[in-house]
Specification:
25% of the residues are buried. Strand 2 and strand 3 form a beta hairpin. The chain has a 4-stranded antiparallel sheet. With 96 residues, it is of the alpha+beta class. It has 3 helices and 4 strands, in the order H-H-E-E-E-E-H.
């Protein structure tokens, strides 16, 4: 999957958790996770995926407190994606 395809997909359809994103057909390989952010009712995480033409950072809900949230959608944070800067250097480091 190309970078812009993944970004567009996440912009045009609501994915409420990183778990939902992993079910996207053709999604590239997940390389690592970074930047955990915890609130009192949910936890955000950024997963980095290798797309056909770039590395993409996808940020979304990783886990949530079921006592404070009815479901993941009630966290009111849909997943977002953005290309990573200096992807050629990062790809070389990760793939060589």
């Amino acid at each position: 999957m190309k970078t812009e395809t993944l970004i567009s997909l996440l912009e045009n359809k609501e994915y409420w958790s990183l778990k939902e994103v992993t079910n996207i057909k053709g999604l590239g390989k997940k390389l690592f996770s970074m930047n955990p952010v915890d609130t009192d009712s949910y936890s955000l995480l950024t997963d980095v995926y290798l797309c056909e033409d770039n590395l993409v950072a996808v940020t979304g809900v990783h886990s949530f407190d079921e006592g404070k949230n009815e479901d993941v959608k009630s966290c009111n944070f849909s997943c977002i994606a953005e290309p990573l800067i200096e992807q050629k250097i990062i790809r070389k480091i990760l793939l060589d």
